[in-house]
Specification:
The chain is α+β, with helices and mostly antiparallel strands. Helices cover 38% and strands 29% of the residues. It has a five-stranded mixed barrel. β5 and β6 form a beta hairpin. α2 runs parallel beside α6, α4 packs parallel to α6 and α5 packs antiparallel against α6. The chain is globular, with a radius of gyration of 19 Å.
């Protein structure tokens, strides 16, 4: 079964995000070297659900996204600087032994068919995010163009990418980011992101009330 190089991180990366990396651990420099030897250098990124990647023993999530290397610089001494763009979502079918770096059999996981999504529901999430940013700015005595923070999120006309882009701009925890990423349908992603906005808003209001 073909395998894909994998890079577990303590961040749930979303399609459309940029991922800058400095790679220096020997097994991952080997991974980068192998990737760069291909026509389309890329590797899978998944969230570390528990534990730490360094030293092994981590528990890895089974949903992630492919990171395509768009720029690379060999810094010498077994070190690389990379710029990657997160693209298609993937699902891990089976993890393989790390040899020397993590590998897994994966498959693309596009959104599954589901309930239709009302554009107004996404715009409502966008408006709630704007209100949240303005609330934070007011509490700090600052001025912020909150609408600019979310501006252009729907430029592609793709509801899934619109939601991923909005999610990337919300200061939420990794569990909420992963819930957005792992939502099986666009409708489920709307619900997950809406819940994340509620969670962050409640947290902000609690902190401001202290």
């Amino acid at each position: 079964m073909p395998t894909t190089p994998m890079f577990p991180l303590q961040v749930a990366m979303l399609p459309g995000e940029e991922l800058p990396l400095r790679v220096f651990e020997p097994r991952y420099t080997a991974m980068v070297s192998d990737c760069l030897a291909t026509d389309d250098p890329a590797f899978g990124v998944v969230l570390i659900a528990a534990g730490r990647e360094v030293g092994g023993g981590d528990i890895r999530s089974d949903v992630g996204a492919m990171a395509h290397i768009t720029e690379s610089a060999d810094l010498g001494g077994g070190r690389y600087r990379l710029r990657c763009v997160m693209a298609e979502r993937i699902r891990v079918l089976e993890w393989q032994p790390d040899n020397p770096y993590p590998r897994a059999a994966v498959e693309p996981w596009p959104d599954e068919p589901g309930e239709s999504v009302d554009v107004e529901a996404i715009k409502d999430i966008e408006d709630r995010m704007i209100a949240l940013f303005e609330r934070i700015a007011t509490a700090r005595g600052a001025q912020v163009a909150a609408r600019d923070i979310v501006a252009g999120a729907d430029a592609s006309g793709d509801a899934a990418m619109w939601l991923y882009t909005l999610a990337s701009r919300l200061p939420m925890g990794q569990a909420d980011r992963y819930a957005v990423l792992a939502a099986p349908t666009v409708a489920a992603r709307v619900a997950a992101l809406g819940e994340a906005v509620d969670t962050v808003t409640a947290m902000v209001e609690f902190q401001l009330s202290e």
